[in-house]
Amino acid sequence: MQPIRCIIIAGILVGTITTQAQTIRPMAENLPCDSVVGINCRSIVADTVFNPYVTGALGNWRANKSYTYFARRAESDPTTATNIRRNGTFKDFATFWSFQDSVLHPHYDSTRWVWNSELTLFNRKGLEIENKDPLGRYNAGLYGYQLTMPVAVVQNSRYRESAFEGFEDYGFSTRNCDIRCAAARHIDFSSYLSSIVTTEKHSGKSSLRVSPSGQAGLNFSLAPISADTALARLDFTLTEAACIGMTLDHVKTSNKVLLPTFAPTPGRRMVISAWVKEDQDCKCASYTSNQIVVALLIPNQSPVNYIFKPSGSIIEGWQRCEGVFDIPANASTMTVSLRATGSTTVYFDDLRIHPFNANMKSFVFHPVNLRLMAELDENNYATFYEYDDDGTLVRLKKETERGIKTIKETRSALVKEQ
Predict the structure, then answer these.
(1) Residue pLDDT, tens place only, 22-56
(2) Predicted confidence band at 307 (pLDDT cuts at 50, 70, 90)?
(3) Residue 297: phi, psi to the nearest 5?
(4) How far apart are CA 374 and CA 21, in angstroms?
(5) What is the pTM of this model?
(6) Per-residue pLDDT tens digits for 169-207
(7) DSSP 230-291
(8) Which end of the chain has fewer CB atoms within 10 angstroms, the N or the C?
(9) Beta partners for residue 217, in sequence order
(10) Which burial class, exposed, middle or buried, applies to 11 when counting CB atoms under 10 A from its CB (0-12, 13-18, 19+)?
(11) What count of other Cβ atoms lies within 10 Å of the Cβ of residue 144?
(12) What is the pLDDT of residues 85-120, one digit of tens each?
């Protein structure tokens, strides 16, 4: 029997064609899933011929732009008595869509219809992950838990320019397929799965453990702004068939249709932030046996290194590490290393990287029931949510420089009948 065939689509880009998919290992019969099964972990979209309708590259309608109508009201004299029931209509109105030769056509009248938001990126589940306004400012949303929950929202940043990692959803699964060749993550610590532990955590259930004198690092490619303007296209190859004429032979596309992973822009100023905890009884003002190193590689030059150490108050054993760094305009690669520099085990949690002028809020959910466990504000300080066995919110705590404070607590019960 042929193996079951399923499809993974990583994204849809408004106005162009974007899709990401991967092939994975053959699966047992009658196992329901939604990915294309294969032998090698390769994209079924960019690496071979494909059906654009099956993968979602074509055939799905997505919102593109939203417009607002600007015009004067019919009643412009403030001294005239107002008829609330009938007044307040536009003095004149021109429709955006109108029929011409039985076909709807748009009328781009910038004096009346002004666009205020353009949706630029969608993920494979149809969720909006990037938009921009008329001033060219981008907003992004990062999704985790297999694209079921938003883990961060970022203002004034492109989707590929920001990243958040809470180390919570690496074991999250809704189905038993796509295990070997899962879809690409925006920022991926999968190579350190054995170091993701539940014994210590700043928020949620997990954190990343780094052994004494060890490190956990990732490399990220840098991408200029011009990389975002390259449009994806479909290449249709025709062939001549007897008695029929020219017919479609196959459809191919390039990797430009794939959604980008984390890839900052050269020449930008960035902010990196994380929470750290050393496995020791520290009666000190600050931890000293850990650091975050950002290395920026420049072709034919020595790398530019930034070293960040935690500072501020130690709150319930955790201390925040935050720093600002500049990416050189000619840099090609960025490396982020979480290091334990002494003889003490160090735990890292709630890592975030974003442009200096951006504003990020991130969210941590329970990896089983998906209840909101923590919300981290613009400064990476957490608000903790606690629930009872029935799933009712009973306590709200806020992390501050003076410690974690309970700001709201609720108890309820049902009166038992005699």
Answers:
(1) 322 223 333 334 443 344 567 778 778 888 888 77
(2) very high
(3) -90, 130
(4) 31
(5) 0.83
(6) 998 877 655 455 667 789 999 999 999 999 999 999 999
(7) PPP-EEEEEEEETTTEEEEEEEEE-GGGSPP-S-PPTT-EEEEEEEEEESS---SSS--SEE
(8) C
(9) 337
(10) buried
(11) 25
(12) 888 888 888 899 999 888 999 988 888 999 999 999
**Cβ contact 25:56 at 8 Å:** no
**CB 7: neighbour CB atoms within 10 A?**
21
Q: Give mean pLDDT, residues 141-156.
A: 94
Residue 393, CB-side half-sphere exposure with 13 Å CA sphere: 10
Dihedral pair phi/psi, residue 379, rounded to 5°:
-100, 10
Q: Which two tokens stand for residue 64?
A: 């593109």
3-state secondary structure (DSSP) of residue 356: coil
Note the maximum CA span of the chain. Answer: 87
Q: How far apart are CA 255 and CA 4, in angstroms?
A: 25
A 10 A CB-CB count for 136 gives 6
CA–CA separation, 248 and 338 (whole Å):
51
Whether residue 236 is predicted with pLDDT greater than 80 in this model: the reply is yes
Written as six digits, the tokens of 265 are 């822009």
- Residue 353's DSSP bridge partners are 163, 272
Question: What domains can you pick out in the chain, each with its CATH number?
Answer: 137-223+260-409 (2.60.120.260)
Per the rule left: phi > 0, alpha: psi between -120 and 50, beta: everything else, 193 is: alpha
